[in-house]
From TrEMBL:
The chain crosses the membrane at residues 6-27, 48-65, 71-96, 108-127, 147-168, 175-196, 216-233. It comes from Glycine max. It comes from the Eukaryota. Homodimer. The gene is LOC100793445. This is Probable magnesium transporter.
Length: 260
């Protein structure tokens, strides 16, 4: 697939984003460890002393920078190209955890990293070339096609079922419930972030898209999706913390989860 200058910018931003986000988890974890060692109070028991630890803030700033780069990448490259590259942050975290935190990366972990790289390369090679977009109204027209509306409707129905039926009953015993909610909402947030990023890019180029209510609608969808994903991602981490505490009481992973 030939890359245009726009797509190349998006590709570079997506790679930078993955590097920053992957590294941020390691930096934050180091900050949490240092705060726990200095103040003797962990986040999991009500301690917020990690907020006084500069290293933790370095991790937060690194994560924010990565998320901003990822957001801007959607304005330059197709979502089908940017989204899979986000998986590379897992590889960055795994490698840095092995080197810096001395958390041994086992054979299955190495196999998972290889599969992430292979999947990203395959999608990158076969990613379609994006047509130039001159207005948010074009994205709105595509987003209101019957096929996509049917998909959105099915996602919303599934999310409601998971949130109101399965989450109260088995959400705290089966992590797939919370991850399912995050994944389904993520599929909608990708489309909305792409639309919002493109709108802002066109606005900065002198074609004001803020005058269209569709732009603000996409912004609202992004906000709702992000809030829901953060909420249920935290629930996932709490669930994993409990499992890890039972299986590996002394695991350093527990400290990271206790930030929640």
């Amino acid at each position: 697939m030939g890359l245009s200058k726009e797509n190349l910018k998006g590709l570079i931003l997506a790679l930078v984003s993955s590097g920053f986000i992957g590294a941020s988890f390691i930096i934050k974890k180091q900050g949490l460890r240092r705060a726990a060692a200095v103040y003797g109070v962990r986040a999991g028991v009500g301690g917020y002393y990690y907020l006084l630890e500069p290293l933790w803030w370095v991790g937060m700033i690194t994560m924010i920078a990565g998320e901003v780069a990822n957001f801007v990448a959607y304005a330059f490259a197709p979502a089908v190209l940017v989204t899979p590259l986000g998986a590379l942050s897992i590889i960055v975290s795994a490698v840095l955890a092995d080197i810096i935190l001395k958390e041994k990366l086992h054979n299955l972990g190495i196999l998972g990293c290889i599969m992430c790289i292979a999947g990203s390369i395959i999608i990158f090679i076969h990613a379609p070339k994006e047509q130039p977009i001159t207005s948010v109204l074009e994205i709105w027209n595509m987003a209101t096609q019957p096929a996509f509306l049917a998909y959105v409707g099915s996602v919303i129905v599934l999310v409601f079922i998971l949130v109101f039926h399965f989450a109260p009953r088995c959400g705290h015993t089966n992590v797939l419930v919370f991850t399912g909610i995050c994944s389904l909402m993520g599929s909608l947030s990708v489309m909305s972030v792409k639309a919002l990023g493109t709108s802002l890019k066109l606005t900065f180029e002198g074609k004001n898209q803020l005058i269209y209510p569709e732009t603000w609608f996409f912004m609202l969808v992004v906000a709702i999706c992000v809030i829901m994903q953060m909420n249920y991602l935290n629930k996932c981490l709490v669930f994993l913390r409990k499992i890890e505490a039972v299986l590996l009481p002394d695991s350093s992973f527990e400290l990271e989860c206790r930030e929640v």
